[in-house]
Amino acid sequence: MIELDRVTFHEILHEVTLSVDSQETLAIVGPSGSGKTTLLRAVLGFVIPTGGIVRIGRHLASADGKLLLPPEERHLAMVFQDLALWPHMTVREHLEFASSDGTRIDALLRRVGLEGKAERRPAHLSGGERQRVALARALVGEPRALLLDEPLSNVDVALRAELIALLRELLAERRRPALLVTHDLREAGALADRVAVIEQGRLVQIGTIPEIQARPATRFVEALLADRA
Amino acid sequence: MGGTLKRAQEHLALAVAGVVLCALVLLPLVGVVAEAPSGALATLVSPRPWLLLLRSCALAAVVTACALAVGLPLGLLLGRADVPGRRAALLLHALPAFLPPFIVALGWFNLPHGNALFSFAGAVCVETAVFAPILTILVAVGVRGVDPSLEEAGRLTASPWKVATRIVLPAAWPAAALGALLVFALSLSELGVPLFLRVRVYPAAVFARLGSIDFAPGEAAVLALPMLAIAAALLLVERRIGVRRSFAVLGLRSEERPLLALGRHRTTATIACWLAAAASVVPLLGLAIRTLRDGGFAQVEIGASAWNSIVPAALAASVLTVVGIVTGRAVARDRPGSRLLDALAVLGFVTPAAVLGVGIITVWNRPSTAVLYRSLAILAVGFAARYAVIPSRAIAVAIAQGSAHLEEAAAVHGAGFLRRMRRIVVPLHWRAISGAWLLAFVFCLRDLETAVLFYPPGSAPLTVRILTMEANGAAAIVAALSLAQCGLVAAAVALGAWLLSGALR
Fold first, then answer.
1. Measured CA angle at B73 (ends B72, B74), to 5 deg
2. B377 vs B316: CA distance, rounded Å
3. Which residues in chain B have Cβ-Cβ distances shorter than 8 Å to A141?
4. How far apart are CA A19 and CA A125, in angstroms?
5. pLDDT tens-place string over residues B85-122
6. A197 with A206: CB under 8 angstroms?
7. Which residues 6+ apart lie within 8 Å of B454 measured at CB?
8. How many Cβ atoms sit within 10 Å of the Cβ of residue B381?
9. Which one-letter DSSP state was computed for residue A19?
10. Residues of A with CB under 8 A from a CB of B
């Protein structure tokens, strides 16, 4: 479970309170510059909120401007928007780096459709294969929670559908809390149980898509819904 | 490894780097101030040292102005214009920057009418020839780093020339300003050229009180004080130019972008560029002619002094590279305390070598540290104090170009600082790190000003040996030793160019 209680970060985030349950996927939706990625980085521990509390499972990760648990001790996993694959490592080396015991690597490679590609480096993979490496790396260490920062923003329409299907399956199998940042409400609807809408660093609405559709809180949310339709 | 220790790895590494930099740079400077005997302060009462300091500052200012006049247009032309063979021309033009300046003076001296150099103007010419390439390189890299979209926006309404002068050059100003500052600092420190050309400068006055019949170390420490104030001022200027802005410009971005078309000015510009490149090689021809004509290599044994140059240079470069990985990465990622460490390293570079040398003598010339002081290690200490900023900045520039996400992805998966350094940062940037080592090595190799003040008896490095032989040795032998020095540097630069060309691919 991930809990944020009145999390504030300078002028970027203002008292954001939300929680992600143990088997839930929560999508954070908002326009560019609304603070979505900063929120994710606060959960990861790469930015220290100037106020409020971040709790991961039973652990207090940061509180009132203090980092209590550094990123490497939070046992989270992240799919970065730019994937952040290490160019000097092969696919297998990526997974070995992220895995504590290395036992599940081959099974996971098969699961994400990368069998036969284990010895390749990122430069010798297609865009879709790189996305799968980033996903496999995130999952191999059995993290407490999975965070995804616009994971499908740089893929074409056909590949997007394929990856959404794979992500849905993996999220359902892993039964871990997941936090997905996106600006696309359709993507959020396809992957998440609930959606949190952020505008100018403030959480303006949170709920399921039908709940949000029934009572959009702001004009931006209305516009998002219209765009989705 | 325990969780607490794992968490503290980065702070510990930065603390160790800080201690090393303090011991190398700050301690000698504190030593200069603390050990300056009050009785010798009378030295500064007379107007003579102040007039000499003014003269040195004037020399440095004129050299900087000349270097700007040469380096700005050449940097623009060789960095971005359609000059045929611009990379080769830049490499040739840059060559003197990697040589001890007085060797360039020696080269010109060995050519016909070489005696004309023995004047203030001669010193300006030689120092401009040596230091202008630093500006050219920084401006060339700077203009290559300018966002192409800025140029494209300008090209919609303006000529290429207007775009170059109104958009590209101003965007590269932090690089030019940093270059001007470096040239001023190097020129103010320069000892070999003024000594050889018999031009009186302030560092020579300090040197005279440490290494000749005027031996008066107390007076040397007092004379160093005004230069310490100048170093502090240079550091402030460097801080104002802005650490991060200079990183934004000094990129290693490699994507090809269209060259600025010079049109009808192309021939003139090409001739100018290649003349500048050729002028850099001419002094070497002077040395080669002298050596071959009089059989210089047959008369001299080079081995020991080359070794005395290589060993401390390699040692200093290695220590500085390890420290530079920690500080450079911290600067690139704006970690707490990184700016202070960077400022310390910059202070070592902008502090005139004479001041640093006096401080090193004050701190290390004691019975308890005699073993170090009487060995080649003291040269490594001096080199490391002066050139700490070079690998640190070079590595910072390389790391700043890469995505922070690559390291963050490792942290998310539980990798502590040391593991991230070992598995991600160093392997990703190994070419740049090797290049940083080589750059530091070359600067240590070309050093004369620091080494000449405290080299161990009987272990003079090659640069010091050339300078001392120049006063009373055969010209052919001096020329042969100078060519050997050039060969050493050329080998290191060639290796560096090969490594960096790989990094840019």
1. 95
2. 9
3. 413-414
4. 36
5. 998 999 899 999 999 999 999 999 988 888 889 999 99
6. yes
7. B357, B360, B361, B364, B365, B373, B378, B379, B382
8. 25
9. E
10. 44, 46, 70-78, 80, 82, 84, 86-88, 97-98, 100, 137, 141
Using DSSP, state whether A84 is helix, strand or coil.
coil
Burial of B254 (0-12, 13-18, 19+ CB in 10 A): exposed
Instruction: Yes or no: say if B401 and B255 are a contact pair by the CB < 8 Å rule.
Output: no
* B94 within 8 A of B137, measured Cβ to Cβ: yes
Chain B residues closer than 8 Å to A73 by CB: 3, 6-7, 414
Q: B48: buried, middle or exposed (CB in 10 Å: 19+, 13-18, 0-12)?
A: exposed
Q: Which DSSP helix (H) or strand (E) runs through A178?
A: strand A178-182
Question: What 8-state DSSP symbol labels residue B423?
Answer: I
Evaluate if residue B253 carries a pLDDT over 50. Answer: no
Q: Find the helix or strand (DSSP H, E) in which B13 lies.
A: helix B3-21
Question: Which residues on neighbouring strands pair with residue A28, listed in sequence order?
Answer: A181, A196
| Helices and strands: H and E segment counts in chain A | 8, 11
User: Phi and psi at residue B262, in whole multiples of 5°?
Assistant: -85, -15
Rounded CA-CA distance B140/B275 in Å is: 17
CA–CA distance, B31 with B152 (Å, rounded to integer):
54
Conformation bin of residue A200: beta by default, left when phi > 0, alpha when psi is -120 to 50 = left
**Residue entry with tokens 């985030």:** A13
**Chain mean position to CA A137:** 13
* Distance (Å, whole) CA B297 – CA B299: 5
Contact B408 A46 (CB under 8 A): yes
Contacts of B361 (CB under 8 A, 6+ apart): B210, B217, B453, B454
- Could you identify the residue written with the tokens 């990094």? B503
Sheet with A194-199, side-by-side order of all strands: A76-79, A145-149, A178-182, A25-29, A194-199, A202-207
Q: Do B416 and A72 touch (CB under 8 A)?
A: yes
Distance from CA of B250 to the nearest CA of A (A): 23
The Cα–Cα gap between B413 and A98 comes to 5
| Closest chain A residue to the Cα of B417, Cα to Cα | A72
- The tens digit of pLDDT for each residue in B164-221 reads 888 888 877 888 888 999 999 999 999 999 999 999 999 988 888 886 666 777 888 8
Q: What tokens were used for B43?
A: 């030295």
Q: What is the DSSP string of B242-280?
A: -HHHHHHHS-------PPBP-GGGHHHHHHHHHHHHHHH
Task: Report d(CA A186, CA A160) in Å as an integer.
Answer: 12
H helix or E strand, kind and range, residue B367: none
Q: How far apart are CA B210 and CA B203, in angstroms?
A: 11
Q: Which two tokens stand for residue B49?
A: 């040292």
Across residues B490-495, what is the average pLDDT? Answer: 84
| pLDDT greater than 50 at residue B251 | no
Determine, for residues B414 and A80 on separate chains, whether the beta-carbon distance falls below 8 Å: no
Query: Does residue B408 belong to the interface with chain A, where contact is any CB pair within 8 Å?
Result: yes
Strand partners, A199: A202
